[in-house]
TrEMBL record:
Residues 477-645 form the Alpha-L-arabinofuranosidase C-terminal domain. Keywords: Glycoprotein, Hydrolase, Signal. The lineage of its organism: Eukaryota, Viridiplantae, Streptophyta, Embryophyta, Bryophyta. Its EC number is 3.2.1.55. Transmembrane segments: none annotated. It catalyses: Hydrolysis of terminal non-reducing alpha-L-arabinofuranoside residues in alpha-L-arabinosides. This is non-reducing end alpha-L-arabinofuranosidase. GO terms for biological process: L-arabinose metabolic process.
């Protein structure tokens, strides 16, 4: 596939606006602004076959759904835990190995030698659902007359977070933890760099509590220097025993003040998502039901969330990003929340339909948590967390990829009937594909997932051309090129762009679409590729992220009918285009947005003829062109070259 990456924009023409774009293996958008419409200045033509795209701007077009393009957030690749959830401490409650002792307190480690300090877990926590705490026995003593002096900075325990904590000079961090002690001492709370430099420190004067009671402590540390791979240490230089539990460190500056890592949340917000599907994926199912995500364990005070081991993606999560946080994130992004719940089916097990009753009640409780009044049982829990107003939950998905598993249909119907009875407005999403044959059960949407190679996804731009326009709508909740896609490359994004244009054209059959997965922490890839790559302090969008940005104005826009014409020697097989019209309220202009993907080997001149507007109404200064391209189809972005593609 040859790449020439050259673009020419065409000329003004009385009642017809012409825009000529030469494209080869790249996706381009022409954004034409006008009181009606406009065009950008003319550039040179290219020696390539010319294809004419004709659109009538005065045609009202068909309005596309407000929810057409959105996001799918799954706890995979440390998307939440060690990612979007800004908690810096990993394994805050020392429970990663379960509720029994000895538990796994990894990645916590001992500060000091064996002769100076002993650390280990016991079950003395004040939290009934998190019984494990960390016991720190300090053996050294600065005041001691003997020889066992504590080292500078004291001894105790430290946590390196998720492959290092990003501590920035001038920034503030709130450190909270629970403490129990039977003696008086000064506790040092510090962020230190990899090489042991103190970046921020506060001392807490701890009084002996004769009853050995627990108390919550909170300090704000302001960093005086930067390290992207820092750690948090809690240390003492006085002989005695103390206990720690539920240690948290968060930057005070988070997205909308709700605990989301700001730069990552901004990348989501830039996409103007119409919906947020969460929290999985397979994560919702679990390999075993006992390890599946359960909403009620992920709400309420963070200290008393038990956390769980996600046995599909194989890591522990403290569940700081839980059900409540998913709803809150959707609200903060202006997106409709779509809650995917477990329907009694994991990868290995299925609860028989006759026993599904308690699972149905659990989901009804979950909906009450989201939508119930603040004086309802579960609405009160939500209100106590700081959100007395109901969340706007109008969509739920009954399971994930479970259509052909035992008891799915029976279980589905039990959930469907109970939810429709209590919440008739809630739209329900089936796991069974209704794109080619009608569903054998009632649903508002059917879920459609596709992971494939670039050529096949390009071919799938026609996937919904012949899908029934009546009955449930398609929710393409997971799509991506996963073959020959490296860690996310240009050719994958081109195919995805073509597929999404196909969805725009078929947006009377497809009402929602989201790429998957959204995030990957580069230190622990569980799935590849992903839209946004990050580590403790950096982030970049793969081409698959940037291609989604081309569609950020599509939600609620009008699809303008268009035709493509070429001479008989020119093949149109590699080209897909769409024309949509969107009003921008901030400047009062209408935009005609033309998107095109040329997936073929040859450059094409795309000439745009727009009728139905006057050339005088063109606002050239507000018009723009956006190109996605790079030198080679396999090119990827990276931390060092985040905008290569
Ligand atoms: O997106 C990654 C996984 O792919 C999802 O968890 C699952 O639904 C699909 O199989």
């Amino acid at each position: 596939m040859a790449m020439t990456n050259m673009v020419s924009l065409g000329a003004r023409h009385r009642q017809v606006v012409q825009v000529a774009v030469a494209i080869s293996g790249l996706l381009c958008i022409l954004g034409l602004a006008s009181r009606n419409f406009t065009v950008v200045p003319a550039l040179a033509q290219l020696p390539a076959p010319t294809v004419i795209l004709r659109a009538n701007a005065s045609h009202p077009g068909r309005q596309m759904p407000e929810t057409l393009f959105g996001l799918f957030f799954e706890e995979i690749n440390h998307a939440g835990s060690g990612g979007l959830w800004a908690e810096l401490v990993q394994n805050r409650g020392f429970e990663a190995g379960g509720a029994n002792t000895p538990s796994i307190f990894d990645p916590w480690y001992k500060v000091g030698t064996e002769a100076q300090v002993i650390i280990g877990t016991d079950r003395s926590s004040p939290f009934d659902r998190n019984p494990v705490a960390l016991k720190v026995e300090v053996l050294c003593d600065d005041d001691h007359k003997g020889l066992n002096f504590c080292p500078k900075g004291g001894v105790g325990a430290a946590n390196p977070g998720f492959w290092g904590m990003n501590i920035l000079a001038g920034s503030k961090y709130r450190v909270e933890f629970w403490l129990r002690s039977t003696y008086s001492f000064n506790l040092s709370i510090a962020f230190t760099s990899r090489d042991g430099k103190v970046l921020a420190r506060e001392y807490l004067s701890v009084d002996a509590d004769a009853n050995g009671g627990w108390s919550k402590q909170s300090v704000v540390l302001k960093a005086k220097s930067t390290d992207h791979y820092a750690r948090l240490s809690l240390t003492s230089s006085t002989k005695g025993v103390f206990w720690l539990d539920q240690v948290s460190a968060m930057p005070t500056d988070t997205f909308k003040g709700h605990g989301f890592r700001k730069e990552l949340a901004m990348m989501l917000s830039d996409l103007k998502p119409g919906f947020l599907r969460f929290p999985g994926g397979c994560y919702v199912e679990g390999t075993r039901l006992t390890n599946a995500f359960r909403w009620r364990d992920s709400v309420g005070p963070y200290e008393n969330r038990p956390g769980h081991y996600g046995d599909v993606w194989n890591y522990w999560s403290d569940d700081g990003f839980g059900y409540y946080e998913g709803l809150q994130l959707a609200e903060d992004l202006g997106a409709a929340p779509i809650w995917v719940f477990n329907n009694g089916i994991s990868h290995w097990e299925s609860v028989p339909t006759e026993a599904i009753g308690p699972w149905v009640q659990d989901v009804l409780d979950g909906i009450e948590f989201a939508r119930g009044p603040a004086n309802s049982t579960w609405g009160a829990v939500r209100a106590k967390m700081g959100h007395p107003e109901p969340f706007r939950l109008h969509h739920v998905a009954i399971g994930n990829e479970d259509c052909w598993k035992p008891f799915y249909r029976g279980n589905y119907m039990e959930f469907y009937k109970a939810i429709k009875l209590m919440y008739p407005d809630i739209q329900m999403i089936s796991n069974c594909d209704g794109s080619s044959v009608p569903l054998d059960h009632p649903a508002d949407y059917y879920d459609f997932h596709v992971y494939t190679d670039p050529n096949n996804l390009f071919a799938m731009r026609h996937q919904f051309d012949f899908t029934s326009r009546s009955g449930p709508k398609a929710f393409v909740s997971e799509y991506a090129v996963t073959v020959n896609s490296g860690h996310g490359n240009l050719v994958a994004a081109l195919a995805e762009g073509a597929f999404l244009i196909g969805i725009e054209l078929n947006s009377d059959a497809v009402h929602m679409a989201s790429y998957a997965p959204l995030f990957v922490n580069d230190n622990d890839r569980r799935w590849n590729p992903d839209a946004i790559v990050f580590n403790s302090w950096q982030e970049y969008g793969t081409p698959s992220y940037w291609v989604q940005l081309f569609f950020k104005n599509s939600n609620g826009a009008h699809l303008v009918p268009s035709t493509i014409q070429a001479d008989s020697s020119t093949s149109l097989a590699s080209l897909i285009t769409s024309v949509v019209r969107k009003h921008k309220s901030s400047n009062g202009l209408d935009y005609l947005i033309v998107k095109a993907v040329n997936f073929g080997d040859c450059a094409l001149n795309l000439e745009l003829e727009v009728s139905g507007i006057s050339a005088n109404d063109v606002v050239a200064a507000e018009s723009y062109i956006t190109l996605m391209t790079s030198e080679a189809l396999m090119d990827e972005n990276s931390f060092t070259n985040p905008l290569k593609v």
